[in-house]
Here is the input.
Amino acid sequence: MLFSLRRLLPAKKPQKTSHHNEVPRHVAIIMDGNGRWAAERGLPRTAGHHAGMGALRRTIRAAGELGIEVLTVFAFSTENWKRPKAEVDFLMRLPQEFLKTDLPELMEKNVRVRMSGNREGLPLHTLQAVDTAIEKTKTNTGMILNFALNYGSRAEIVAAVRKIAFLAAKGKLDPQTIDENRFNQYLFTADLPDPDLLIRCSGEIRLSNFLLWQLAYAELWFTDVYWPDFKGEHLLAAIEAFRRRDRRFGGINL
Ligand code: IPE
Ligand code: IPE
Ligand code: MG
Here is the structure.
């Protein structure tokens, strides 16, 4: 029965290269699994976070070579404050450490650094490291490296609503004029294209409050690889999968 019904289906369209997606403009990554990577080796969780910097370096290099325009990496969530203070303190030192070693290469590669997240709550030394990198790279015209630091998507959306409500209450904004594009302007990612591809490693299949608005039509790609083991080949595999996806955005591709 199934066989005969199948025969009624139109023959599958030959793959047209024009249907293949280009390389994604914006790739977002949830860099997860540092703790488990360390635990498997009998090391403290912080060793996993430290090793994660190597993965970040490799990924930035690979993303640049592939011509990705924006790379957003989830470095610390608003929920990560729940972790033990020693781990949080260690994580808050990583931007400094990473930028101290890697800022020259970022400059050489014309990478522009920026941040998406709440500045309030971050230690001064963390902010200073990130601000220095943002300032030094501000005229670079290559890939944008966007650190999602102290970032939570619900908090971001609520903050946007609060700003809009405040302006409306003051009579400075007509509620009738608020549409999706306008709303987007109140998010940390206002001037960035939405991510086309989201990568999460470590085997978890969830968004963990990351870019809920911006990922509305992103292609999602998951791998069991722990972040410290993530290499250019994994990014390539994700992009190859992305290129084969049929992105319909609710429409139909004829
Ligand atoms: C990701 O690795 C890094 C941060 C969340 C800062 P984890 O620390 O979450 O590692 P697992 O998920 O516990 O293995
Ligand atoms: C998400 O990972 C946050 C970052 C990678 C920075 P988590 O490890 O915090 O997410 P959950 O707790 O597994 O959802
Ligand atoms: Mg985790």
Remarks:
- Residues 201 and 223 are 5 Å apart (CA to CA).
